[in-house]
Amino acid sequence: MQKISFFIILALLCCSCKQSRPPALEPDTITKLPYFNCSDFTPEWGKGTHKIPPFSFTNQLGETVTNETYKGKIYIADFFFTICPGICPKLTENMASLQKKYAKEKNIKLLSHSVMPWHDSVAVLAAYAKKNKVKAKMWNLVTGDKDAIYNIARNGYFADEDFGKTQAENDFIHTENFILVDKEGYIRGVYNGTIAIDMQRLDRHINVLKNEK
Fold first, then answer.
1. Residues 114, 150: contact at Cβ < 8 Å?
2. 100 alpha-carbon distance from chain centroid
3. pTM across the whole model
4. Which of 23, 60, 111, 184 has its CB 3.0 to 4.6 Å from that of 77, i.e. a possible disulfide?
5. Cβ neighbours for 167, distance < 8 A, ≥ 6 positions apart
6. What is the 3-state secondary structure (H, E, C) of the chain?
7. Is residue 206 within 8 Å of residue 108, measured between CB atoms?
């Protein structure tokens, strides 16, 4: 009986958060990044056709954050919630590492969307930002209308991997993806934000975009 209980608990823990995808392999040196125009993240080497659509959310300081905030910037986007006990602490830790690494880069920004906006008010985000030493000049934690956040997650950033299978609008979004967006608003990469080797790949790709003409 004890063995059965143990395996039930183990199964529940394994299913509590989405399992991480294996990191993509690539040469250590690359000079060009593809564009990603659809939710299956098929790389395309011509000019991109899909841009992040217009958005307007509120950050941890109560300020409005829109596409204009990120115009002409390379940025990394992700989706989290402040009371997440699973992958979110690791996502936040790795976003914080990007904040530290690129602190002097004026054209590199971070954007974290709460997928639990009914809980994550401006005050809650402010407390979370303080706890995790988030600097608003570089990194916005945003909340807003749930439908708007879920729509941009699914149709803008293609961040909800299960949506293509279920098409369930009310399903809770919980993803480990970091999405790399270029200065023109095109998606140029997707990474597992919980895995060190993928974070290294992201770092290489940021540097490729910095040198892109």
1. no
2. 17
3. 0.84
4. 111
5. none
6. CHHHHHHHHHHHHHHCCCCCCCCCCCCCCCCCCCEECCCCCCEECCCCCCECCCCEEECCCCCEEEHHHHCCCEEEEEEECCCCCCCHHHHHHHHHHHHHHCCCCCCEEEEEEECCCCCCCHHHHHHHHHHCCCCCCCEEEEECCHHHHHHHHHHHCCCCCCHHHHCCCCCCCCCCEEEEECCCCEEEEEEECCCHHHHHHHHHHHHHHHCCC
7. yes
Cα separation of 121 and 58, whole Å? 9
Nearest-angstrom CA–CA distance, 9 and 108: 42
Instruction: Give residue 115's identity as a one-letter amino acid code.
Output: V
Print the SS3 string covering 129-190: HHHCCCCCCCEEEEECCHHHHHHHHHHHCCCCCCHHHHCCCCCCCCCCEEEEECCCCEEEEE
**AA letter at 15:** C
* Average pLDDT for runs of 10 along the chain of length 213: 39 38 53 93 94 98 97 97 93 97 97 96 98 97 96 92 49 86 97 96 96 86
Angle (CA) 129-182-155 rounded to 5° is 80
